[in-house]
Amino acid sequence: AQTVTQSQPEMSVQEAETVTLSCTYDTSESNYYLFWYKQPPSRQMILVIRQEAYKQQNATENRFSVNFQKAAKSFSLKISDSQLGDTAMYFCAFMSLGGSQGNLIFGKGTKLSVKP
Amino acid sequence: SQTIHQWPATLVQPVGSPLSLECTVEGTSNPNLYWYRQAAGRGLQLLFYSVGIGQISSEVPQNLSASRPQDRQFILSSKKLLLSDSGFYLCAWSREFYGYTFGSGTRLTVV
What we know:
The structure holds two protein chains of two kinds.
Chain A: E1 3-5, E2 10-14, E3 19-21, E4 24-26, E5 32-39, E6 46-52, E7 60-61, E8 64-69, E9 74-79, E10 88-96, E11 104-106, E12 110-115
Parallel strand pairs in A: 2-12
Antiparallel strand pairs in A: 1-4, 3-9, 5-6, 5-10, 7-8, 8-9, 10-11, 10-12
Chain B: E1 3-7, E2 10-13, E3 19-26, E4 32-38, E5 44-52, E6 55-58, E7 64-70, E8 73-78, E9 87-94, E10 101-102, E11 106-110
Parallel strand pairs in B: 2-11
Antiparallel strand pairs in B: 1-3, 3-8, 4-5, 4-9, 5-6, 7-8, 9-10, 9-11
């Protein structure tokens, strides 16, 4: 069974600085998708970024980028120029292309606080 | 554009009472639908998913059940709530492998 591990329960960063959130996963599959979701205090889950495992190029979305290391099964999220609105829980998630109908498996999350 | 609606936003129910949470999706057809639960300070646990009308798969045995009476409607139910059913419940939909779009969630407190 696939598992997703986020080893940092909480992190903090100063406004305008850069922070990296870690995520590792375990799977025997070669084709899959990885995601980062953001859950602000409103509790609404928002998709931040998506990476297809067959693509070597790291995904980027404005200030958000990932470092995808397939051999190491690592998928970290880098937030540049941190803003107060980035304060949220961040969840890493794995989706297999086979088997369970595209079910997402989530890590336990990292609580990020951006300080002014 | 696609939207997902989930209600109610908050609910306080006594132990042993029934539960019905509803989720509807607009702007798409034949979506995959999901119910997740998020306990305080923890990650998301998949409860049920559905790939079509009347097709429900359960990931975790519990006293909850789910139904999909229409293509874009997904209902989470219980006949008798337990204290341990308290949590934040999220509905989501997906098509293919783009990822999920989540509803705004229901905070359930069982007292």
